[in-house]
Structure formats: structure tokens, C-alpha cells
Amino acid sequence: MSELLVAEGISARYRVDADEPPVRAVDDVSIVLHEGESLGIAGESGCGKSTLASVLSLNVHPPLTVTSGRLELAGHRLSLTEPGWRRQAEAMRGKVVALLPQGAMNVLNPTRRVSDFVYDVLQSHMPRISRKEAVERAAERFEQLALPRRALDAYPHQLSGGMRQRVVAVVSTLLDPAVLIADEPTSALDVSSQRALLKLMAGLLERRIIRGIVFITHELALLRAVTHRVAIMYAGQVVEVGPTEDVLFRSAHPYTKALMDATIVLETGTRRQRIETIGGAPPSLMAPPPGCRFHPRCPVAMPVCSRETPPVVTVGAGRTAACWWVAERMQQAAAPAGAGAAGGAGPGAGAGEAEAVGEGHDTRAASQ
Ligand SMILES: Nc1ncnc2c1ncn2[C@@H]1O[C@H](COP(=O)(O)OP(=O)(O)OP(=O)(O)O)[C@@H](O)[C@H]1O
After folding, report:
1. Residue 138 has pLDDT above 80, yes or no
2. Compositional bias of type Gly residues: which residue ranges (predicted)?
3. Could you say which of 3.40.50.300, 1.20.1290.10, 3.40.50.1780, 1.20.120.1810 is the CATH number of the domain covering 3-230?
4. Fewer beta carbons within 10 Å, N or C terminal of the chain?
5. What is the pLDDT of residues 295-347, one digit of tens each?
6. Is 47 in the pocket of ligand 1 (CB under 6 A)?
7. What mean pLDDT is reported for the chain?
8. 235 ligand 1 Cβ < 6 A
9. Integer Cα distance of 313 and 323 in angstroms
10. CA of 50 to the centre of ligand 1 (A)
11. d(CA 50, CA 233)
């Protein structure tokens, strides 16, 4: 499968106060989106998902800066720290990559019709397009995706929230971007509007209107519905990547397992959530812990985890996890029988496949 988006070693930080260290919101993240694929990005609130969405969609504005990394988007290469990359990014925004942000429906101006919005969007990239052509182009796309053509004549208040969100989603694809970065696009929608938007996004891919989607959410149920593969983030880093069902139901990384077992708790007075099944809270991204950032909360942490950055281990076909504990288990599983494999992966976990971490906790305890 060919690669549509390749992000390598992306680090991005917010510097809000000169007297304080920057917030290292995304730190050395590498991901790949394949042609025709929907890739989910999940993790607790504050783990850097939206920041990564901003970088991947080339929407990087102060106080956010990119400190390292390379991006390849539909054959266009950008080195995000070289002078001139912003100009290049500006030319690609909307045309090569488009962002559907949280609460996108609110971009519609209440005093103007949807058709005015369509014209504004298209005209800003295609100064010569006539209003008639712009509206016709949108109408065709609406029909293709089973949205009523009459929505173009409506003012935003005449449409439901779900319809407004779908309208903005479709308008964001009018310049035929290769990649759509959808950042929590279904948040604040009721269940039936969520379903309709997910169907619309699947339609965009199936009809090859777009060639790939990065779908950001903290709702794990949605990942199953829309994504082929998923990357799990913790404290600004990717900890596990693989096919969605494998990552969610046969998690390799202790954090993914915790996330799957979690009761997500909304913290009073904020829109942040934390996981209740494991103690502690995610670290401050101004001063993340050394080694593995999850080690202070990890039920299977080893001494090395607090000292050294974990290796990225292949745990199956197209699956990786960044974890010392997983690395040790893979090594044990690969060792010949009787060669000190006590406490290694259990039955069914061959050299190329780590077993789900849930059972692994018990196995490891037995080996100590
Ligand atoms: N404009 C900003 N200025 C300073 N820090 C920011 C800003 N936006 C985000 N951050 C910080 O960057 C870190 C990552 O935030 P980000 O919004 O990317 O996470 P997230 O996983 O998308 O969270 P959520 O699910 O709540 O949107 C957090 O520590 C957050 O407080």
C-alpha cells in the first residue's frame, strides 16, 4: 500500500511565557497514512492530538512552533524547520491537505447563506471562479454525498447542528485535498448526527473524493467505526500503532490497555479527562518524566523505564509499541524453549506477536 502522508520526527511546542519552559505538546512523532486509509489518533485529553492535527494540516501559528520534523503529503515534501516552509504550506493548505477542526460548524457566518461561504472558500484559492461556478461545484458534491442541494440556500440557523457540520465537512473538500485531517469532528453532535457525519466521511473515501483521513478522537468506539489503523498517543508521543481491532482489543502497550479498561473521568471545571483505572495523572508537558513518559503510572514499569527512552518494537504485522516491557516479552518469546523464557509471552504469542498486555501483567508478576 503506498504512502500518502509520511510524518517523521515531528516535534512541536507552545511557548506562552518566556520565564517558563515550553509545552512539548508533540515530541518526536512519526506516523504514516496509506492511500485509501483512515488512520485514527487517540489518547487522553492533553496528549497532543490537536497539536499534531495542526502540524499535519499545516496550520501552525504562534505560540505553536515546530522544532523538528519532515512531512511528505501526497508527494510534496516539507522540512518543517527550513525557512520558506510556511509559504509552501500556505499554497498546500486546503488543496493538498484540509483540516476539519473541532466545532467546525461554527465557522459559518450566521448572517450569510451557505452558498456565500462556499463562494468565499473557493474564491480565496481560485480568484477567477464565478459565484455560479462555485455554487454549482458545491451542489454537485452535495448531491454526490446525499446532502440536500437546498442547504446551499440556507442560513446556518435554518440547519441543524449535524447538518451544519456535514456542510462544512463537504465544503472543506471542494478544492479536492488529498488528505483530510478531522479533529474530533463529531464532538458536540448527537448520536444520529455523529452517525451521519461518519457515513459522510466514509463516503468521501469510498468515492475517492479524498485519498486518506486522519481521524482524531478520544472516543474509542468511534475508532472502530471509522478507522483502519490507529495510533495511540500519551504525553505528546505515539506509544502504539497498528490495525484498529488489534490495538484496541489485543493491546500491546500498558497504556493502551489502561485506556481500553478506563473509565474516562471529566475533571471538574475543565474539559480535560483522565483515566481512572490507573493511579496518577498525565505529566506536565513542560517537564515530562525521563525515559518512558508513562513509567510513573505504569503497572509493569521496570528500572530501565525511568532512565531510557523505550525502543519501538514490532509486535505483529504492521504493529509497533514503544515499550521496554513489551521489548522484554518479545525477546523472551523469541528465545528457544527452556532458555530462560519463564515469564515470557504465554501460549499463542509467537516471536512475531506479543500477547495482549492484560494477561501479561500476571505473567510478569510470576516471573519476578
Ligand atoms: N494555545 C496553546 N498554548 C499553550 N499550550 C497549549 C495550547 N494549546 C494546547 N496546549 C497544551 O498542549 C498540550 C497538548 O494539547 P492538545 O490540545 O494538543 O491535546 P489534545 O490531546 O488534543 O487534547 P484535547 O482532547 O483536550 O483536545 C496540552 O498540555 C495543552 O495544555
Report:
1. yes
2. 340-351
3. 3.40.50.300
4. C
5. 999 999 999 999 999 999 999 999 999 999 999 999 988 887 665 444 333 32
6. yes
7. 86
8. no
9. 7
10. 7
11. 11
